[in-house]
Amino acid sequence: MYLDEIEIIKAVSESKSLSQAADKLHISRPNLSQKIAALERDLNANLYDRTPQGVTPTRQGLMLTEFAKRVSDMTDELRVELASLSESFTPDIEVGASLADGVTLLPPLFKKYHDEHPEVTIHLDCGYEPELIKKLTHYALDFALLEDRSMESGMHWDKLGDEELIIVAPNRPPFSLLHQPVKYEKLLPLPMVIYEWNSGRHMVGNRHFRVNNHSSLNDNNIVARMDTHESMIEAVRAGLGWGSFPRCIWERYKNESQLIRINVDTPPILYDVSLVAVEGRPMSPVAKDFYEYVKKNVPTDYFYAGGKTR
Asked: Are 10 and 29 in the same domain?
């Protein structure tokens, strides 16, 4: 069977008469009758009973009608899938964004940049720092906004500012009974939820407490590792344990009664936020322009400033 024959069967089933079906198919009624007769000969089946009032499908006709509807639906689905293959989006700028400060800072900054340059398009590639560094080295990104600083060679790091990790715990005992500021040693036996291992987040806290408390991550009572901030917040909210979050993440949840901030008796836990590009690799003019725009237009009150909160 051909697709035009499928459309004939479907049109007849949806019409009250052959004349109406012929109108729907934009052919004459005699032409439609000829096509139905040819189809019956081809299938060696009597598809319709003819009466003065029109045609009524036989059992064979009903079976063919159901088949035709399924094929028609599958054809429509195929057309949609084939059309999607021809659709594309080729941005002018490819920018990597870390999953905390990157996704917080870059979208509103690009909105302002786009207001001034409406012809420019962007792909914001959001991910973990090691993945984004790898994409930079393979020239898949123009530049990236990353947290902390990796040991990767051949990268140019343009520091924007310092940000702070905030310790967050469930607002329930034993956490709610701790006297603040809390001695870090008191947190060690309490259950801890750690962030995605390869992000480098655990290294920020690890370095901090090695220097200030001579303790390592292995001294903590780690009960779970979560790979997104959302899952970590849900775990802390449920009472699974405490965790550390970038300030920009804590800002979203700080007014929730189920969560409390834990202040420890150490200096603030700080990490770098930087724009990163491959050393010596020239950027396109528009990518370089947006890079400089980000540097100049990061909100002045965004970063940690000697104990002041945003």
From this structure: yes
